[in-house]
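Report of the visiting student (M.T.), summer placement. My assignment was to run the structure pipeline on a short list of targets and document each run. The first record concerns Uma2 family endonuclease.
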Amino acid sequence: MSLAMTEAAPAVGLSRWDYVLRTWRELDVPDGWRAEIIDDNGVVLVAPPSDPHNYIAVRVNRALGNVIPDDWDVYQTLGIQLPVVERLYVPDLVVMPESVVLDPSVSPCPAEEAELVVEIVSRSSMDVDRRKKLWGYAHAPVPLYLLIDAWDDMGPSVTLYEQPGNGRYNHATTVEFGEKIGLPEPFGLEIDTSRFPRPDQWPS
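After the run finished, the structure tokens were exported:
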């Protein structure tokens, strides 16, 4: 479930993006919820994820933690900004260098500094993850976007988007749940999807 926040006119001297970003920073978000700027409608509150969603995040987090350098980390609640398209997302997982996260001059973290973002599709986020965030991450640009989609019309799948340029990803690799998806260097990793919950294991 999402709740759109009504946006007032920007204060004098602030750009629209600076105003919306300030609104995002000042929000008192309930525990477990996330505040994102997904489109031109302002700030949206996103409900806490389900147990199967969290399980997939843990499995991917564990795999990434085995290969990333010591000065990178995997975050589940890190807001990343995309000023070029006036968006701010909180990915299900994002790999970010600690030097960026600890730099107060660039908070929220710039999306283009991310090494990888991961989104796990739920019933309520299909359009956002498959279309809006795909567009946003390509524009940032984020080098690797991993989309885990139990609700794919063709069957549960995982897609790795690579090679962003001109506002789109120029290469995509899709595997079905049960297969392994390879991440290129600097990860050099295969993620086993065989334990990812299928639709009948998600709450109705």
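The helical segments are 16-26, 51-65, 98-101, 126-139. The chain has two domains: 1-48, 49-201. I thank the supervising group for their guidance throughout the placement.
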